[in-house]
Amino acid sequence: MARAQLSAKLVVDGRVPQALALSPGGRWVAFVVAPVGRAGVHPVSDLWVAAVDGTGLPRRLTSGEAYDSAPRWAADSLSIYFLSDRAERGAAQLHRVGLVDGVVEAVTSWAGGVSGHLPLADPDLVVVIAADEPSAEDERAAEEDARWGVELVRATNRGLRLRNRSTLLTKVFLDGPLTRQDLVRSSGLSQPAVSNVVGDLIDEGLVVEAGAASSDGGRPSMMLRVAPGFAAVIGVDVGETRVRVELFDLAMTLLASSEYPLDPARTEPAAVAGHVLAGIEAVTTRAGVAAADVLGVGIGVSGVVEQGAQAVVHAQALGWDRVPLQRLIADGTDLPLHLDNGAKTLGQAEMWFGAGRGTRHAVFALVGSGVGAAVVTNGITYRGASSSAGEWGHTTLMYGGRACRCGARGCLEAYVGAEAIIDRYREALRGRPVPGDDEESQLAALVDAAAASATARRVLDETAGYLGAGVANLINLFNPERVVLGGWAAMALGDLLPAIRAAAGRQALRQPYEQASIQLGRLGVDAVALGAATLPIARLLASGGVRG
After folding, report:
1. Sign of the CA dihedral 445, 526, 338, 362?
2. H-state helical runs in 331-417
3. Which among 384, 405, 464, 539 could disulfide-bond with 317, CB atoms 3.0 to 4.6 Å apart, if both were Cys?
């Protein structure tokens, strides 16, 4: 059967390629159908990618598992061919999906096994599709694009190698030290592929051997880890009471830190940018790290961070509206900058290194002066349409309740944010001042007083109830495996955890509550800055170790 070129360009919309292309000589390069849940189109069941090297042999090929819904296509009669393979068995499987009048007519498979899925957003995926009765025009188009197809195969192979580098480098960074055999088992790549990639990473200084693994006999395997000195990263926590700047090596060892208190009544963006720049200079000077050795600066900040060419920040509680914070900081440094919401950077730190490890569905709640959350679903942070998802503190706890700094009434933050807790304690004391010079010392004074003061105890008990109700909302909405409470105020209120769990249990639906655990974060008050430092590292890992 002849195969015709139906489209000669690869289009990636940020989620899934939307292209049809033909590899010359019948060498299928890749296959993709449609994104799950796209309006009006259901994939031929989660059908993803197949890749073929220059010899026409399958290298890493995947497919979906069932064909439970019929996609719609413009063409009247098509046959889609794709391959799948399970690397450890070396068994290729050829599938044919026949469509008539845009509806799946038949699915035929020949031999072999099926492996797992590859990521959806992959710019190297190419569709191989064949028309049952190609027109002469289709045949001419295929011939004219043969040269393009050869280049496409080469580009796909380069993309596959970068993807393999990214996979192995990420595993070594997050789970190392690991042996080469560990990487073969966990990645699904062949032993030669792992050896080749690891050799390149060692030659480039990204990975180092870190001693021999224990052995019961025979030649011991060498352990691999990311080279700590390959680069340094800076993480910044722009909170509402202070700016914390920390410098780490690639083993996430803290090399230097610096803090700059903020007056809650004076949080002008220019002043905050000045503190960030001063902190960058201070920590690099103190640790003797040259700017050329800094991979980048990650910054976690309160409010909604609108991503773009240069991120802008919306923080109603601070009086910030479309503040060009990235530009303000970039005016004083040439280092790459990465901005995100502080709750999201805390969530990434806990997912990578702390209480979130091993989970795929989790919510990370940041309780400080303000309150926020990061929602992780299937291992990926949910951001929403404009990255404002997770503003947990501004969900309504009590309609028409206490005034919130955002301008609304009854927000959760107006009851459990550190500033709100202190205000409620002051009201309970009939206006008497709360001991302490700042929010952190005042909250500590409340916690200390609870042992002897019924008033302080009542305020803390109410706070546990409010937090428990807020956590119950998270459980009911997102069905997480784990809810992690972090931030400096959550750490200060750690003894309330049993009461928070009990309150959440009274408010949440029984089944999702019983499946979820509620824990304190494991990374302490540095979690936001640590997570911010992972932003440039995530870019490095995704690129397979290519700095840029």
Report:
1. negative
2. 342-353, 413-416
3. 405
Q: How is residue 333 written in tokens?
A: 């440094």
E runs forming strands in 53-172: 58-61, 77-86, 91-100, 103-110, 129-131
| 125 φ/ψ angles, rounded to the nearest 5 degrees | -80, 140
CA 304 to chain centre: 16
Q: Which helix (H) or strand (E) holds 447?
A: helix 439-449
How far does Cα 323 stand from its chain's mean position? 24
On the CB side of 513, CA atoms within 13 Å amount to 17
44 close to 97: Cβ distance less than 8 angstroms: yes
Tell me how far apart the terminal alpha carbons of the chain are, to the nearest angstrom: 45
Cα-based distances in Å from 494 to 71, 324, 482, 497, 521: 51, 36, 17, 6, 10
Q: How far is CA 534 from the centre of its chain?
A: 10
Tell me which H or E stretch contains 195. helix 191-203
* pLDDT string in tens for the chain (548-residue length): 222 222 222 222 223 233 333 333 333 333 333 333 333 333 333 333 333 333 333 333 233 322 233 232 233 333 344 433 333 333 333 444 443 443 333 344 433 322 222 222 232 333 333 333 334 554 454 444 444 444 444 444 566 778 889 999 999 999 989 999 999 998 888 888 899 999 999 999 999 998 887 766 666 788 999 999 999 999 999 988 899 999 999 999 999 999 999 887 678 899 999 999 999 999 999 999 999 999 999 999 999 999 888 899 998 877 899 999 999 999 999 999 999 999 999 999 999 999 999 999 999 999 999 999 999 998 899 999 888 899 999 999 999 999 999 899 999 999 999 999 999 999 999 999 999 988 999 999 999 999 999 999 999 999 999 999 999 999 999 999 999 999 999 999 999 999 999 999 999 999 999 999 999 999 999 999 999 999 999 999 998 998 86
Q: pTM, whole model, 2 decimals? A: 0.72
In angstroms, the CA 184 to CA 160 distance is 16
Only one residue has tokens 């003061």, namely 453
The DSSP bridge partners found for residue 340 are 300
Instruction: Name the strand (E) or helix (H) holding 376.
Output: strand 371-377
DSSP E strand boundaries for 49-134:
50-52, 58-61, 77-86, 91-100, 103-110, 129-131
Do residues 270 and 323 make contact, with C-beta atoms less than 8 angstroms apart? Answer: no
The token pair at 478 is 């997102």
- Other beta carbons within 10 Å of 111: 8
Rounded distance between C-alpha atoms, residue 330 and residue 268, angstroms:
17
443 near 426, Cβ under 8 Å? no
Q: Nearest Cα to 196, choosing from 157, 232, 228?
A: 157
* Residues facing 341 on adjacent strands: 301
Record the tokens describing residue 94, joined without a space: 């050829």
